[in-house]
Specification:
Length: 132
């Protein structure tokens, strides 16, 4: 009986320790979207989880964290940690690119379904280039 209580107590302590290690990331990230594809003919609309967010601007030179004039030309949003379905569509509602973006603990991962992307991150800021 004493051995059973000891095992139960050990299991409860192990579970408690595990649960306290699982911290939710409540960080809000500044995410800047742009395209390096000339959009003078075809504008790209940004959709996140199938919700329209705005038009992605064409920027011929890749924005960087240190170049605020270029970075501020990009379409900016704040996103919390999570997994996002990112799509760009043309004026005919045709999907031009689609990516799965994961943001977590100051890091990202991306898995492309169609088109392409480039993502760089620093601190709580990410710059996302989308193209087709």
């Amino acid at each position: 009986m004493k051995h059973t209580h000891s095992l139960t107590l050990t299991a409860i302590l192990a579970i408690s320790l595990f649960l306290t290690q699982c911290k939710k990331d409540d960080t809000v990230y500044n995410v800047y979207f742009y395209t390096s594809k000339d959009t003078t003919v075809v504008q790209l609309a940004l959709y996140i989880d199938d919700k329209y967010k705005g038009i992605i601007p064409y920027i011929s030179q890749k924005p960087t964290y240190d170049n605020d004039s270029l970075k501020n030309l990009a379409f900016s949003l704040t996103l919390s940690s999570g997994k996002y379905n990112i799509k760009t569509k043309n004026a005919y509602d045709m999907v031009m690119s689609e990516q799965i973006l994961k943001i977590k603990n100051n890091s990202t991962s991306v898995r492309g379904k169609s088109g392409g992307s480039e993502i760089t991150g620093k601190d709580n800021c990410f710059i996302v280039g989308l193209f087709y």
